[in-house]
Design goal:
Length: about 400
Amino acid sequence: MIGQILFYISLVIALLIGLAYFRDLGDVSQMLMKVKRENTLRFIRNEYRLLAIGGAAIALMVVAYFDFDGGVNWLFWPMLVLLAFLYLFPWVWVHVGLRNQRSTAKYYSLEEARALLAPAASVVVFENNGVARAHPDSHLMRPHLAGSEEGLAGENVIMTYCAMANLGLGYIPVIEGDQCALEVLAQHGNNLILRDNTTNEPIQQIYGRRDRDAPGGAAMQPWPTFRMSFRSFQKAYPDGTVFLNKPSVNPLLRLFDLVTETLFAASIARQHNEALPIMDNMSNHDDRLPAKTYIWGIDIGDDAVCFTQDFLVEHGSLINTEIGGRKVVLAWDPVYKSLGAWYNDSGAPVTRIDFFGNSDQGSLPRVERLKAGMFWHVWSEFYPGTDINRTV
């Protein structure tokens, strides 16, 4: 009797935790069901605690079966296989398949990059004191995080990337003076959720702050990022370098990464080509623009505005506006084919500005809060009160 009680209680506990693990962090599960954000965040915060409880329950179930005649043969073995899948798949997917390169990324010369990238390949760029780095979407897709020990010309800047949102953002991974040990854990609202392993606290990529912190409070410092083609990057930054996620020298990891990246590529191709999100875990549906419209969004304080490239071009490729009390100029550069945003504190409207921020009102700094070329349905999910194409 004791064996039976131990077996079935431990089986239920192990199964409930395993199902929750697969549902909340299994990623592919969100293609099949709508996962609640609070459940995902709970598992992110308590992953190893819950896995320890689940692992102990599995061990107790095995002991009850072999030593105390608990359970039955036809149930034990299928449940053991199922539990192994429910626990191992999310863990391997997250901690091996999505292993990041926040401090180990390799940057290569333009000559080396030309052998692996098409001229029209889209890249997300950040720059500091003339040192520019390009990050191709196709190479950021699996690691999600890219940075190096030496930083960006001495600044501790890393690139964060969410393929579901088509969003690359540069951040200094420090909050209130504490270095964040970032790890990729999940996505919700079609946007990446990271975990700061020093606090076990989730960080939504688009916000850059710990989930426990209030809006407008402590957050990672954003770094200006912008999009352009690899062809244009070479023209603008002839001494620039490019992040390349080259295959592992370990043959097993190399094969595993190939499978992972193939699955990613197929899913992300659908995300770009289908009208609706392939993972519909959205809570806000705003039909002012088609869901997959690429927008350039800026949030300053409590104010959020997004722009479309078509609108900007139709209005002379340059717009002076105000966002969150700051004067901002947005411009489409026809030479480098890149849409940028700069702060304009000169007191006068800008009538001319180039790709590098040189304007008729002097040299202007890029807006660090620009989200370049992301999907409208993701922007409107996190900024539901957003304006569109503001000109004043």
